[in-house]
Design brief:
17 helices; mainly alpha; 321 residues; single chain
Length: 321
């Protein structure tokens, strides 16, 4: 009897020891799937662990935010924070989810959500003063939200100075963002052009200037910036995406835009790059402008398979019927 009990106990101990790495590998696998933009597969891998693993809950929140479901994202981020209340990153993303909720809330609920957004980001900053993503988010908050809800341009300027102390490149980006918040077009262009000289290897600077020109409908200037970059970096995915985006918005250089987006889709999603849903949406826009409605439908349907809540794709697909 004693021998049988010893064997049984040993077996249980062995299984218990194995359980930790197995769970860890599953969560890690889910995170890897998320990083590869395979959000549906990542959700399947992470869901069994979301109730007891903070990282799993956090990435489940990220998945819901990718799918435009801010309510579910908030639930998961709050759950992650209950398990790990010392994570600045968790609070940062919770603030982003609250902010997304606020954008779609009625005017009576917006003040409540604005306070929650601000509190989450201030908590994130208190936990890690060197978290520059939080500082960037607070700059956006201070410059876009009315004063009675917590907006404060002086605090935004102070935040940009603090970023500059910690990271010159990020500080320059923050200063340019302040120019944009003040609708100072010349300041934005001057700042980004200076950064192109100071940081010639940065794809983000070229992309930022191209986006600015495209948003101003100065498409010729946007294409000129991108072409300058592509002469030396012809396969840079972030720049190719901006070429596709600019083509989709402008209706110009559609063949080049189509080829660029297809090349980006054929490669792993670049860091800080667009989601696969976003790529398919821009490609659908290009096909629609080319009059290839069947191909446009395929792309918009691909968007909705990846992100069923993508409102622009829903409207575009409905408009093609």
């Amino acid at each position: 009897m004693t021998s049988r009990l010893f064997v049984a106990a040993s077996a249980l101990l062995f299984l218990a020891v194995l359980a930790v790495p197995i769970r860890g590998q599953s969560v890690e696998q889910g995170i890897q799937l998320f990083n590869a933009s395979k959000f549906g597969e990542a959700r399947v891998a992470l869901l069994p662990h979301g109730e007891r693993d903070a990282d799993a809950a956090f990435y489940l929140g990220r998945i819901e935010l990718e799918g435009n479901d801010a309510d579910k994202a908030v639930d998961w981020f709050e759950r992650a924070i209950r398990m790990n209340p010392k994570s600045s990153v968790y609070y940062d993303w919770l603030g982003r989810a609250y902010g997304t909720q606020a954008q779609h809330a009625n005017r009576f609920r917006q003040p409540f959500l604005a306070r929650k957004t601000k509190n989450a980001w201030e908590t994130a900053l208190a936990l890690d003063p060197d978290n520059l993503d939080v500082r960037d988010d607070l700059i956006i908050f201070y410059t876009r939200v009315p004063g009675f809800l917590g907006g404060n341009k002086e605090k935004a300027r102070e935040m940009a100075v603090e970023i500059k102390k910690r990271n010159s490149y990020r500080g320059s980006i923050a200063a340019t963002a302040l120019c944009a918040a003040d609708n100072d077009t010349l300041c934005v262009v001057r700042g980004l052009q200076e950064m192109m000289i100071s940081y010639p290897d940065s794809a983000g600077v070229y992309a930022g200037l191209a986006v600015f020109y495209a948003n101003q409908k100065q498409f010729d200037k946007a294409f000129a910036v991108l072409d300058e970059r592509l002469r030396t970096k012809p396969n840079e995915l972030r720049t190719l995406y901006q070429l596709g985006r600019t083509a989709a918005l402008s209706g110009q250089n559609l063949d080049r835009g189509e080829q660029a987006l297809k090349l980006v889709l054929a490669n792993p999603t670049p860091e800080s790059g667009p989601s696969p849903a976003g790529l398919h949406y821009r490609l659908g826009m290009i096909y629609e402008k080319k009059g290839a409605k069947d191909l446009a439908r395929e792309e918009y349907r691909a968007v909705l398979q990846l992100n069923p809540r993508h409102q622009d794709a829903q409207k575009a697909l409905a408009g093609l019927k």
